[in-house]
Amino acid sequence: MTDARPAQGQIPDKPALEGLEEKWDAAWSGRGTYLFDRARATEVGRQGVYSVDTPPPTASGSLHIGHVFSFTHTDLKVRYERMRGKAVFYPMGWDDNGLPTERRVQNYYGVRCDPSLPYDADFTPPFEGGDNKSSRAADQVPISRRNFIELCEKLTVEDEKHFEALFRQLGLSVDWTQTYRTISDDTIRTSQLAFLRNLQRGEAYQDLAPTMWDIDFRTAIAQAELEEREQPAAFHRVAFHRTDGAGDVHIETTRPELLPACVALVAHPDDERYQPLFGTTVRTPLFDVEVPVLAHPLAQPDKGSGIAMICTFGDVTDIIWWRELNLPNRTILGLDGRVIADAPDAITTDAGKAAYAELAGKTVFSAKKRVVELLQDSGELVGDPKPFTHVVKFYEKGDRPMEIVSTRQWYIRNGARDEALRDKLIALGKDMSWHPDFMRVRYENWTNGLTGDWLVSRQRFFGVPIPVWYALDENGERDYDRVLTPDHASLPIDPSTDVPAGYTADQRGVPGGFEGENDIFDTWATSSLTPQLAGGWERDPELWNLVAPFDLRPQGQDIIRTWLFSTMLRSALEDDRAPWTDAAISGFIVDPDRKKMSKSKGNVVTPADILSQHGSDAVRYWAASSRLGTDAAFDPQNPTQVKIGRRLAIKVLNAAKFVLSFPVPEGAEVTHALDASMLATLHGVVREATKAFDNYDHARALEVTESFFWTFCDDYLELVKERAYNQTDAGQASAALALRLAMSTLLRLLAPVLAFAAEEAWSWFNDGSVHTADWPVAPDEEWGDPAVLTAVSTALIGIRRAKTEAKASQKTPVASLTIRAEDHTIANLRLAEGDLRAVGRIETLELLDGWSELVIDSVELAPQEV
């Protein structure tokens, strides 16, 4: 506990929450309240630092109430650690690059990127302020890649300004001098350097392989970016012809358009129906290609006819079969999602070529329709298609189902095919502390369920360039065995404009020369390095050693598989350790019907209006009331919890003003049993709140603090106010000092939640900020017995109830009243008898012991004056 101090600030006549956000944000910025004190951090060392790997929100849209929810959770812990004396490193990042930014820029400015066009230094976009909805590419003005990137950078900078303003309004205690963008020169250098070191160690590689492909965004998609959606489909029963002439084999497929890409039929090895066919061949309908009949345990006997066709590639299972059964690749879909012009070499008959020609250039939908018509005409479609619905994989931001095409891409090994690496990632996850702990299982399930290495290249424009070139052979073709890499000191580089060592610019694109890589990194390949980006890895060694490994990774549960896993992977590969000691996982925000809020469902709530209408402290209270990992309901039409938080914040201001109205005499000491009891009770709250915050349980810390605060206001403050006013009372100094000490402690306990109200009230009687004040610590030796306050509060409630039952005002004097209770309760009541008489306006109070419970009886109200 700190000593009471004289009043420092002007207490307003009518304290109010309005205007506190602007007032205190300006004050905190001007004073540098939340700046990372590097000098002190250097002095105290890594153990005296608390560092946060803050989630960088995507700067390509708008913040939603979920951001407010989860970022407040982080801020609660950060403010607590700062008050505990830690030098807090709390940066903010902005996730600028990637597909969402490109899509937003296309619609906002009415443009699209065409890398073949030259740069136009005087380009002006056709308009500004698009609605961020899908628009036709034909209506967008094509511009060069450099012009497009300039517009991306311009718009993200503007978005970031709005984001920062809202986060400041929310009261996040971020050090705004410690910010980074995922597309700056420093970021590009860090991301390229990490990749080159992966490449040197053999952890990064390039391969021509089946790739999940989004035909709208025209880019490869990683496993972690996929989601499943229900889609209508139909089973088509198709006849394959046995080569030995012994009849037909019927398969059922949802993808008849992939018949020209068929490379085999497959059934389960234990399926007696098809065991005689294993090792034989059949010919495909329409295209007359001979394919083998094979066995594989992934085939499902109870699905369709029990035998399936393997195509390159219809789904992920096709890839597994293709790889494990060593089958040929007959890909027929191009990067635009249309059937390519050239038929697979295996189609040799005139009829087969003619059938393929009917499909060339068609979309998947049109090709499917035409194949079904051809099968009906040939009699190889058995019966009518049977409609049903099933789940189909989509890119999480895409509008059409994923296709699988064969492309050359860059990968980073992630443990999917490396048991030792996978075991290391699992072990590092077990060594961390997870809040709540069950979230660790989601990480382990994802890690154990990986089916392929991490695809990190993207065929897009706004992102970190992959820093390699390729030597060209005498025919001008890329020699993929001669990948050229830059010297680390030359980073950052753009291989589309920079020249590799040993070559000149005029050798670009000519036989015997070189060609730059056009692909960029997947946005997660950069975001996986947020600790390195924020902490100065390979840029500021002193800072890196002060903050890494970080103390906290806060994030949402839906990106454990992407952001958390990928960051863990990069740290394991580079430093052989976890990047943080603790992970705090927030739950989802759900609407009143308990449905997760999402843009696609149209139930997202933007936070600006809520903050302005109810005040930031009220919204912070709502967020703080939910434990980590727990979903929280939010009804913008009736935000009950927000209203409760606003009531609490207003009560804090009014209670502080009331407490500060009682003068504390020089040399005052706590001498009264009730005052000591109140402080002893408060010390217990301090211990429990401290323990809760240490365990990342901010909701419990708020719960115990708030409960005591209302007891303090409703009971204790009412009990002692007469004594605290009366300067002739021997107990006045004790009451006034106890009130002042309690208010000082309560403001510090509530400061992480009610950041603005606590700071305002604190300023009325303290110098400096409550957010840099010492967190309260309970004394080793207790000052009093909490049972006294408990007994008196219980009696006060009984007295109030008796007056209510008598239909009398609480201000009605009581001529006489008797309280019966247990011996120790009566003894405690005698210690505060004067305060109890005063608050109840009791003339004669009789206290009788020897009873098993506290009872108020023999209540005689004083005559009422007319």
TrEMBL record:
Keywords of the record: Aminoacyl-tRNA synthetase, ATP-binding, Cytoplasm, Ligase, Nucleotide-binding, Protein biosynthesis
Catalyzed chemical reaction(s): tRNA(Val) + L-valine + ATP = L-valyl-tRNA(Val) + AMP + diphosphate
Gene3D superfamilies in the cross-refs: HUPs (3.40.50.620), Isoleucyl-tRNA Synthetase, Domain 1 (1.10.730.10), Valyl/Leucyl/Isoleucyl-tRNA synthetase, editing domain (3.90.740.10)
Residue intervals passing through the bilayer: none
UniProt-listed Pfam families: Anticodon_1, tRNA-synt_1
Ranges of residues in domain Methionyl/Valyl/Leucyl/Isoleucyl-tRNA synthetase anticodon-binding: 675-814
Keyword Nucleotide-binding attached: yes
Signal sequence residues: none
InterPro entries: aa-tRNA-synth_I_CS, aa-tRNA-synth_Ia, Anticodon_Ia_Val, M/V/L/I-tRNA-synth_anticd-bd, Rossmann-like_a/b/a_fold, tRNAsynth_Ia_anticodon-bd, Val/Leu/Ile-tRNA-synth_edit, Valine-tRNA_ligase_type_2
Ranges where the Aminoacyl-tRNA synthetase class Ia domain occurs: 27-111, 139-634
Localization, UniProt: Cytoplasm
A GO molecular-function descriptor: valine-tRNA ligase activity
SUPFAM superfamilies xref list: Anticodon-binding domain of a subclass of class I aminoacyl-tRNA synthetases, Nucleotidylyl transferase, ValRS/IleRS/LeuRS editing domain
Sequence motif 'HIGH' region, residues: 57-67
Annotated residues for binding of ATP: K599
Family in the record: Belongs to the class-I aminoacyl-tRNA synthetase family. ValS type 2 subfamily.
UniProt free text on domains: ValRS has two distinct active sites: one for aminoacylation and one for editing. The misactivated threonine is translocated from the active site to the editing site.
Role summary: Catalyzes the attachment of valine to tRNA(Val). As ValRS can inadvertently accommodate and process structurally similar amino acids such as threonine, to avoid such errors, it has a 'posttransfer' editing activity that hydrolyzes mischarged Thr-tRNA(Val) in a tRNA-dependent manner.
Protein name: Valine--tRNA ligase
